[in-house]
Specification:
heterodimer, A: five-stranded mixed sheet, 5 strands, B: alpha/beta, TIM Barrel, eight-stranded parallel β-barrel, 11 helices, metal-binding (chain B), Peptidase_U32 (chain B)
């Protein structure tokens, strides 16, 4: 399965921008917590503790903000600048998560924007790369 | 005509367990990895292996008949050489097929402490001729040397013709100024370099500034490049920066580019290269999968040198993940002699 080329229509992004970002951010944080709890996300939480993250899906016009607190993640409701922000279109995020596309390649091509603490960005990138999905139901969707 | 030479080993990088599995699954004969510390030249935060993932990775590769090499290719630093010795001990205990070493003192330790451990001379050891390789062979019994990316194809052939030590060469990956084992540019800006701390341009010194028109790359506050809106970006290393020299701003040291030996695979096989190495332990499992698959197919096809031609899908796969969007045969091709 390959992620097709697409950009979300601007009408959708206009709509999504007006919806509250908290529910999707909550789902994201809860999902991450499950992955940590089951030992699938091999996160050294001491490196992430207290740091604030933002995932900005450009063509969807939504920003998901969450932070690492202790041994888990929670929705971040503050309006301060996050420590790390990843920005890309939905299709490129999907390609990166499914390992169809290498994050460095997306970065070279200016399709992935990483802002904030560069070292924290590298920790998160390498953390995502080190998740071994084999043996999980997600494995059949992964390209590598 | 089919070459009488054995096909070179395809040696692929692994910065994580999924990358190691991707290399094995897509046709690597051998994978190489490093530990999570400064004993290897890709000491990036969150990258590399701990004892548990190393054991699992080695089991995965060995179960499928592939080999695993551990890179301990930085230079032991005087203040405390214990981590380097421990890395060698760990390699022996893990049962890797060889260690890739650059530091002569560490080779001496390895051969005295673990005489059964197979030693490869790292590219960081900067050995470009038979004499240097034979010195390491005679003193420490090294079995393979990885050549720095500075030799022409003819020079590589000359080394191979004059030694019984296996010769490994680079086949694909990002290029730098290629004074392997001797580059201090990163230290000039940050005090840390691959040889001393296992990392070029450490991430904590890197700052990307996103402006309206430009993306600025700064290394310890030094502006090393400025990209226009859709310019391809590269790794933030000094050697690939653009600098104002004599009133002109340009890539004064090295243009971001990737090595790609696809067109000369038959020649590399014919001169008797033992292994072809892919750069990129810092890259993702996606990169490892794509590059390994393309090179596996190409190597298998290059066995028949008369009918070999570079297929567009291999070039596409390698071109897509290249840094700098241009590829070169590097020093291998120097027709001007």
């Amino acid at each position: 399965m390959r992620v097709p080329d697409f950009t979300l229509p601007s009408s959708l992004s206009k709509l999504l921008t007006h919806l509250p970002a908290t529910p999707p951010a909550f789902v994201l944080a809860a999902g991450l917590n499950q992955l940590v709890k089951r030992g699938i996300l091999p996160a050294d939480m001491s490196l992430l503790d207290g740091r604030r993250f933002e995932v900005r899906v450009q063509d969807a016009g939504i920003s998901l903000r969450f932070s690492a607190v202790g041994q888990g993640f929670q929705v971040d409701r503050s309006t301060d600048e996050p420590d790390l922000r990843f920005t890309a279109n939905a299709a490129d995020f999907a390609r990166m998560m499914l390992r169809e596309e290498d994050p460095d390649t997306l970065f070279f091509n200016r399709k992935l924007i990483i802002e904030g603490d560069t070292e924290l960005g590298l920790i998160v990138k390498n953390l995502l790369d080190s998740v071994d999905w084999s043996g999980t139901p997600v494995a059949r969707f992964m390209a590598a | 005509m089919t070459s009488s030479r054995p096909l070179p080993e395809l040696v692929c990088p692994a910065g994580s367990l999924p990358a190691l599995k991707a290399a094995v699954d897509h046709g690597a004969d051998t994978v190489y990895f490093g530990l999570k510390n400064g004993t290897n030249a890709r000491n990036f935060a969150g990258l590399n292996f701990d004892d548990k993932t190393a054991r699992e990775g080695i089991r995965y590769a060995h179960d499928r008949g592939r080999k695993v090499l551990m890179a301990i290719n930085t230079y032991a630093q005087g203040a405390d050489i214990a981590p380097w010795k421990r890395a060698v001990d760990e390699a022996a205990s893990l049962g890797v097929d060889a260690v890739i070493l650059a530091d002569l003192g560490l080779m001496d330790y390895a051969v005295r402490t673990h005489p059964e451990l197979r030693l490869h001379l790292s590219v960081q050891g900067s050995a470009t001729n038979c004499e240097a390789i034979h010195l390491a062979r005679d003193l420490f019994g090294i079995r393979r040397a990885v050549l720095p990316r500075v030799l022409t194809l003819d020079q590589v052939r000359q080394v191979i013709d004059n030694t019984d030590v296996e010769i490994e060469v680079f086949g694909f990956g990002s290029l730098c100024v290629m004074v392997e084992g001797r580059c201090l540019l990163s230290s000039y800006a940050t005090g840390e370099s691959p040889n001393t701390h296992g990392v070029c341009s450490p991430a904590r010194f890197v700052r990307w500034e996103h402006g309206e028109q430009h993306l600025n790359a700064r290394l310890n506050d030094i502006l090393i490049d400025q990209y226009g809106k859709d310019d391809p970006a590269g790794y933030p290393t000094l050697c690939k920066g653009r600098f104002a020299v004599g009133g002109e701003t340009y890539y004064a040291l090295e243009e971001p580019t990737s090595l790609n030996v696809l067109p000369m695979l038959p020649e590399l096989i014919e001169i008797g290269v033992a292994a072809i190495k892919v750069e990129g332990r810092q890259r993702s499992p996606a990169y490892v999968a794509q590059v390994t698959r393309a090179l596996r197919e190409a190597l298998d096809a290059a066995r028949d040198s008369q009918r070999f031609s570079v297929k567009s899908n291999w070039q596409q796969a390698l071109g897509k993940v290249s840094e700098g969007h241009q590829q070169t045969l590097g020093a291998y091709s120097r027709p001007w002699k």
